[in-house]
Amino acid sequence: xxxxxxxxxxxxxxxxxxxxxxxxxxxxxxxxxxxxxxxxxxxxxxxxxxxxxxxxxxxxxxxxxxxxxxxxxxxxxxxxxxxxxxxxxxxxxxxxxxxxxxxxxxxxxxxxxxxxxxxxxxxxxxxxxxxxxxxxxxxxxxxxxxxxxx
Length: 150
Ligand code: HEC
Prior knowledge:
alpha/beta; two-stranded parallel ribbon; 11% strand; binds heme C
């Protein structure tokens, strides 16, 4: 192992662990317990279903605003945390949803999602996230079945 590989290892280690510290770390983030039943009403009130689908929730009065609706909830390969959901709602462009054509969900790198930061109360946000989080179910990784060699 030469000096460069040692340096690379150190840099790699810092970049992997680095984000746990510093002013942008999610350390210390904690939501008060919200009211899930009210959260469902918040979802309908703020017309999230104009651009989203969520199993078990529908609103016949709504006009779709996107050609491809973005699914909320459902099965993912990793836990969707409260912090990630809050971020998705108050800062949608931070991480663009996976599994969609980029230009159907974003425009020049920015999410097509509406900004709610001046119209949604914090209580509504907490209730909404309390309602949404359990709708994400973790599915175990599936292994690719390979044929056997004889
Ligand atoms: C005008 C359309 C529009 C409306 C209205 C809208 N969204 Fe979105 N939302 C999007 C788009 C497009 C994406 C995918 C791009 C992204 O990740 O920001 C998205 C992404 C999300 C994500 C991340 C999904 C993922 O799989 O990563 C969450 C959570 C979300 N929205 C919640 C909401 C909630 C809650 C509301 C209502 C308060 C809402 N959205 C209203 C368009 C919308």
